[in-house]
Amino acid sequence: MWKRDPIPRLLPIVDGWNVLDDNLLACPRDHVEAVFAMLRRQNRRIEFTGGLEALSLQDYQVELLASLRPRPTMFFAYDPGDEFETWRSAASRLLEAGFTRASHRMRAYVLVGYPNDSFAAAEQRLQQMLAIGFTPMAMLWKPATAAEMRHAREEGWRTFQRHCARPGIIHAREVVPRAKSPLARARVKAARAAQRDDAADLRNLRPAHRPKKAESVYATDRVVHASERPSGNSRAAFLRRLRKDRPDIHARVLAGELSPHAGMVEARFRKPRSVMERAP
Fold first, then answer.
1. Of 255, 220, 215, whose CA–CA distance to 239 is shortest?
2. Tens digits of residue pLDDT in 9-64
3. Would you place residue 220 in the very low, low, confident or very high pLDDT band (cuts 50, 70, 90)?
4. Which has the closest alpha carbon to 134: 169, 90, 98, 97?
5. Is residue 5 in some structural domain?
6. How many CB atoms lie within 10 A of CB 129?
7. Is residue 161 a part of any domain in this protein?
8. Within a domain: residue 82?
9. Is 39 in contact with 15 (CB distance < 8 Å)?
10. Residue 7, pLDDT above cutoff 90
11. Where is the domain boundary, 145, 172, 199?
């Protein structure tokens, strides 16, 4: 399909296993079915890497995708302004058709780092995709014209994108392996505690122009701070600061490589603890 004209022009179908057309789902049904008939003749796993549109996904197309063997790898494109409910509907129908979260065959390109974007907002979009069953792949916005060069992103965004593009790194935040040694078990325990606090703080993030009731992210029942934003020396406050300004170190904390305090020290947001020597 070619989008240059108001009326789509259908391109000839040639044999192949990697579908790059991002508007395939918007084509007439007979053309879509002809494409899938060609795909069934291929002797390898099919990939849709062009960035399919969740809004265009119809029920018969879900059945066609599920009929391919082995199950294909599908990349959808989550663009700014897309309705989240459209994505939730697409995910639920694909899961009902037999696709699974664990297979990571349902992927989503998520644009990050565009003008006025923030680390917190980008992380929230990625987490939304994970929550409904898609494995996100962060795509860093790049200026296309000289006028857009003033919005070019710093190295921190490139580090963030690298940590949010590979399924192994993304899902390592969710599942921390069991450990045998006492030191390794302590690291696993710290990683899981950091992940719980980080998830609770992400739920507390207020969407733009929409107030949201805060959820306590403190370990005790006595909440000292009435503000939604965690503050002071709490683990949640450290995690939010690292997520915003040092996403590379934030990922290591969630993986259990560093404690939140050690991460803050490495990021130079806090001074290392001083050790006082006793007089002889």
1. 255
2. 788 999 999 999 988 999 999 999 999 999 999 999 999 999 999 999 999 999 99
3. very low
4. 90
5. no
6. 23
7. yes
8. yes
9. no
10. no
11. 172
Indicate the Cα dihedral angle 182, 186, 187, 189, nearest 10°: 140
* Among the listed residues 252, 192, 201, the one whose alpha carbon sits nearest the alpha carbon of residue 228: 201
125 and 30 assigned to the same domain: yes
3-state DSSP call for residue 78?
A: strand
Q: In this structure, is residue 12 part of a structural domain?
A: no
Q: Indicate the pLDDT class of residue 196, thresholds 50, 70 and 90.
A: confident
DSSP 199: H
Domain containing 244: what range? 182-266
CB 181 within 8 A of CB 132: no
Last residue of a domain, one of 122, 152, 172: 172
Bridge partners of 18, per DSSP, are 47
Same domain, 64 and 154: yes
Q: What is the separation, in whole angstroms, between the first and last Cα of the chain?
A: 82
Question: How many Å apart are CA 198 and CA 253, to the nearest integer?
Answer: 10
**AA letter at 156:** G
For the sheet with 47-52, list strands across it: 18-19, 47-52, 73-78, 106-112, 135-140
* Number of domains into which the chain is organized: 2
261 and 153, same structural domain?
no
Q: Which H or E run contains 4?
A: none
The neighbouring-strand residues paired with 242 are: none
- Residues 210 and 188 grouped into a single domain: yes
Residue of 139, 195, 250, 81 lying closest to 203 (CA atoms): 195
**pTM given for the model:** 0.63
Q: Are 78 and 107 in contact (CB under 8 A)?
A: no
